[in-house]
Amino acid sequence: MVVGGKESAPEVMGMVGVVLFAHSGLAGAFKHAASQIVGDMPAVEVVDIDPKSSFDEIEHALDEAIHRADRGDGVVVLTDLFGGSPANFSLARMKPGKVEVVCGLNLAMLLKVFDLRQHGLTDVAAMAKAVARSGRENVVVASEVLAPADAIRGSGKIFGAGS
Question: Which of 42, 57, 77, 132 is the most buried (most CB within 10 A)?
Answer without folding.
Answer: 77
